[in-house]
């Protein structure tokens, strides 16, 4: 979430003056082929991408893999080993194709110092097995550069500056429940590297502090992201070196305009899947969506009963908040070749979804338009809400506001009279309470259609696709695992192509 107080914090901290400088860089391993910051993603039907960073460029990044941990008979390689100014590492990406669906694969990133990991290959589109995924938004680094206690919110846990890296309530819960879900979606506000300026020790070392937080955050997340597909979208904290409006000229090269986000995830995230529909026009539309997709900003994928679309609420639509001249002053993008590329993608992608193959249509994005405590993103609502309604999106997942919220199905701020029983309007949730240095946002004023709101402690959402008609949303207390709220959305999904 944007914090107007950031700039004030910066100036008051400057005034303090007596600070020990120093970015908290992780130690560079002696063997510079050692993989770090491992992450995997669903890349296509039967394919998974694997990303990792190294402290030297690799001429030929490779991954050995197979269905037995002792026999990694297959090898996939690429030439993708890229960096950008002011980064100490190279990002490597390799795609494993032709995987058997729903199968445990073992993999070893080729290095003189790496170990064997494993993942479950994706369910094919149309598979009707029940599964869960977690929505974890506004997460952030922990330790010397992050996740902290503020006097105004004593309920948050103390995170000591010690290993193990899993000692972060939300990451710890994701680790302890690793067999209970199949993927993680994180639509924006990932590591909060741009909040380096909230720690006085970083004040005179901002460029290194930003780079250090990036390295730490993806290292802390690796035990999760290296085993479960980690599907990301852009948030305002990915945009710039800090959130002081119109200050991007002060940002070092490589620390503005979503640079790390693009370098890290453009090759890792999918474009969109070819249609499995028997309907010719759906297949043509899906093909057109693929041409218009632009990972990691906007893209889609299919997984069992789900078609999931990631949207970019930051740039690339009218009055986009982080776009050139946008309200956030972050002056980033545009990333499409034309001004309407994202919305053209979204319309083609949604129109192509055949509910007889993937009954559940879910959208993820960063900034909500329905939120408690004041106004949501108006330009986002104008751009996206009509399309989400028209094509019968079942659930829309946002973050940005640092708490957990659930809304009755709603369109144009009017509640769907059917409630959770086969509504025409999408159900909306905010799952922005995963934990970051800025702390939680109080619930604030609720709308009549707000069904649940929680800001007492860190939490996230677990979404379970039970069968073609029932989808369960649970909000989980990160520290205790307690279910804070549970609801089941019923949809008849009686039409193959919804247009309303
Ligand atoms: C090998 O990898 C481990 C785990 O990442 C690391 O702690 C260690 O320093 C590495 N060893 C060398 C020689 O680089
Ligand atoms: C973090 O580690 C400390 C010290 O080992 C422990 O007391 C605490 O319970 C841990 N917290 C979590 C959330 O695991
Ligand atoms: C075929 O798909 C299009 C959307 O691409 C839809 O409008 C149309 O109704 C579908 N036809 C049938 C027979 O379902
Ligand atoms: C940001 O990067 C995109 C893609 O490289 C480019 O088209 C755009 O002009 C850049 N925006 C700014 C403000 O530099
Ligand atoms: C949305 O609601 C407003 C007022 O409640 C109304 O004026 C407007 O026509 C509605 N828009 C749509 C697309 O239904």
Automatic annotation (TrEMBL):
GO terms for molecular function: acid phosphatase activity; metal ion binding. Pfam families: Metallophos (PF00149), Metallophos_C (PF14008), Pur_ac_phosph_N (PF16656). Keywords: Glycoprotein, Hydrolase, Signal. The keyword Signal applies. It is an enzyme of class 3 (hydrolase). The keyword Hydrolase applies. Residues 1-20 form the signal peptide. Residues 35-119 form the Purple acid phosphatase N-terminal domain. It catalyses: a phosphate monoester + H2O = an alcohol + phosphate. InterPro entries: Calcineurin-like_PHP, FN3_dom, Metallo-depent_PP-like, MPP_PAP, PAPs-like, PAPs_C, PAPs_N, Purple_acid_Pase-like_N. Residues 425-486 form the Purple acid phosphatase C-terminal domain. Its EC number is 3.1.3.2. It comes from the Eukaryota. Residues 178-403 form the Calcineurin-like phosphoesterase domain. Belongs to the metallophosphoesterase superfamily. Purple acid phosphatase family. This is Purple acid phosphatase.
